[in-house]
Every structure is written in structure tokens, then in C-alpha cells.
Hints:
By secondary structure, this protein is of the alpha+beta class. It is built from 9 helices and 8 strands. Residues 1-15 have low confidence and may be disordered.
Amino acid sequence: xxxxxxxxxxxxxxxxxxxxxxxxxxxxxxxxxxxxxxxxxxxxxxxxxxxxxxxxxxxxxxxxxxxxxxxxxxxxxxxxxxxxxxxxxxxxxxxxxxxxxxxxxxxxxxxxxxxxxxxxxxxxxxxxxxxxxxxxxxxxxxxxxxxxxxxxxxxxxxxxxxxxxxxxxxxxxxxxxxxxxxxxxxxxxxxxxxxxxxxxxxxxxxxxxxxxxxxxxxxxxxxxxxxxxxxxxxxxxxxxxxxxxxxxxxxxxxxxxxxxxx
Length: 262
């Protein structure tokens, strides 16, 4: 089993203020639908325009953001290098993107590759179009892991102490009336997932309009990382698609690329 994480989730505002402000700028630029003007960043972060420009200088110089011809700021080329480095860290193997595409074509549902490592659950890659910013499950840290099938199947692979630590660090917020927020009920759900051979279902728990189905993938022998393969689809389709999607997911997992030892 993966070791219990030693450090809690970062709390915004707990580090040096200038560092926090710079990271807030990066987050704001990354989350925006397009280039963001410095004035808009200042308004969003509640700080002075001079502070924003002061921090944009080194961020631009290091390639984390770029200034566009229209004067706004967008993610810079350094983001691509950081993304590749992170993929290596969580065990992203050659062929994963192609395997996700095959699963998408086989079942007609968006497919995802998710990882647990170092006390965090992250959607590493998906078939959802990059331009579809409204999609509920996008690559990046997953703040709703206790309410998604991929998050639950990964948490079921942890020891109980590590799982409790994760839930304490990240919380169990209620996103819909179906979200499990009671730890005893959640432990019962973990038992059901393990009894089902590492297959998890989340029906409208993170988003009422979506259901997701996930299976845990074989992982490194040392257990430092866990991985999951999942699909999402409209909750209204559950009754007539569940069996076909489960079979497609199982078949895709059986033929999934071998993930590297960490």
C-alpha cells in the first residue's frame, strides 16, 4: 500500500505572501478561458496593479507566462515542460493517450487516466476536448475525489490510515445530495469497491448530470503510486449503458500499457 502522506494539502496564504501572490497569478492565468489583462488580474486577486506587474516580470522571464500581442497574459512554454515532468512523476506511460482514445471510440464516453501520488489525486489525461472548459472532469488536481469513481477506486487502494489522512487533508465536501460525506458510509463504499474487484461507480455524486465508472490499474510493486482508468457519461444513460461501459472499461484496462516502476 502507498505510505501515508507526510505533508498536508497546501492552504492558500500559508506561505510567503509574494510567493502566494505569484502562484495566484499563475492559477488565474491557467484557469482563464483566454489571455488575461494585468488590470483584470489585480481586480481578481484584490491587489494593486503595481504588485501584479512586479510579479509578472519574473514569471514572464522564466517562461511561466507570456504577454500576448493584445496585452493580456497566457500560460507560457514552461508549462509544457512542467506538465511532462509531472506525467513522468505520476507514472504516465507511452501509449496512454492512444489507449484512452481507443476506449473513447469503443464506448462513446469520455475516458480518463487518473493517479494518486504523494497524497494527491490528479486527473492526468483525458479525451475531453481541450476547448471544452465546461466539462466537469478536466486534467488537474481533483478536489472532488471522494465523489468521483476514479477518486474512490484510488482511495480504496490505500490503507485505512492513509485514506483517513487524505480525507482529513482534502475534506469531504457535499457537491450534490448523493455525495457521501460520512466517513463510516465512505468506508463501507470502499469495501464494496474492493469486493467488486476494484470497480467503482459514482452516480451524480460530483455533478448531478454525470455518472462515472472506474477501474484501478495494476501499479508499481512498491505501491508509491496508484492509477485508475475511467469513463463519464450522462446520468440519464446509466440504465441502458452500464453493462456495455463496464465491459469496455474492463477490456481497456486489461490491454492498458504497462506503467513504469517509480
